[in-house]
Predict the 3D structure of the following.
Amino acid sequence: VSEGDSIHWLARRLEPVLAGRVPDRVSCPSVRTRASGWPGRLAGRAVQRVHARGKHLLLDFEGDLTVHSHLAMTGSWRVLDGGLWPRRARSAWLCLGVGTRDVVQFGGPTLRLVRTRTLHADARLRALGPDICAPSFDPAAVVARLRRDDPRRGVADALLDQRHVAGIGNLWKVEGCWLAGVDPFRGLGDVADAELLAILGELRPRMLDSATAGRQWRFKTIYGTADRPCPRCRDLIRVRRQGDANRPTWWCPSCQR
Ligand SMILES: [Zn+2]
């Protein structure tokens, strides 16, 4: 699941492999990127930094170039060691080889090479709300952004909106509402500031833990558990699709009010 914490965790894994290194090999095998010219533009340049902003992954190269990646639910990055190439290597969009290792990117809605200094003008990055996995995070600023949204919008759906808070995906939306005991379908206008802060307060330490140590699945409690008993009250968990993106929301009708 490509939520903010998993992208921060990915950046932490790629950083020691790539940062400060000039890749020995750069290639774009897939039909999608074969004609991109990226290998020529990236050749001989050191990777300066690998970092995340919300669900976006950024690889800064020296000489004002950044690889900007957004994986959504379809893309991935892999670190392959010792030439253990999967059969789908030919579908890789970008490969950066360092020593015996290859950092390989597959699929996703966004992979582009841009001037680092123009990144700030990217509409999606500009619009991002505070990053819940960043070292400093102001939950009150997120509440202020949520208050500018339609008060009839369901709270769980609004939490997915990266313009309000960057990094929360479907798993954390579900778990945050359950942890704080808030009905995910309540309109924003019926949810108190204290309840919004409670959801963010439950999520942030868990997401930071996952961003630094990985293994996001440790934090799953009710996500994906329709018709199974709620761990808190034993009533049955339900699921219903919600919002413009029609994403499934699991919730407990008894202890989430
Ligand atoms: Zn319950």
